[in-house]
Design a protein that fits this description.
The chain contains five helices and no strands. By secondary structure, it is an all-alpha fold.
Amino acid sequence: MPISEIYKAANKHSRKNIIMKPPKEIIERARRNGSIDRASLLLSAAYLLNTEASNIVEEASDLLKENGMLLGEIRRLHNAFTRSADMYFRCFADMIRESGQGDAYFKDLEEFDRFFRKWAKLEERP
């Protein structure tokens, strides 16, 4: 994904809409030394991991809620986590949508979820 799309999507969700874009020479240097490609791979992997983690947290909180155990500080922290995750995912969802990689992302997520749940012994869902 081009670095300009990352900045554009991130700025779209900024509360103050402050445009944060480095000078072209910095972007070109990062492109030449491979940093942009590496950052793109790292951000993609992080997004995949964060999505999986968020899905697992939601599944656990649903079980706690169903059993009347999502209370007090755990509930407050869960709600804060959910709000923060929602902001994060909105920003990245725009980047994925704009890049046209939505189908590939969801395929990767399904595959990763299957392998992770097998590794974590979470294959069976109640």
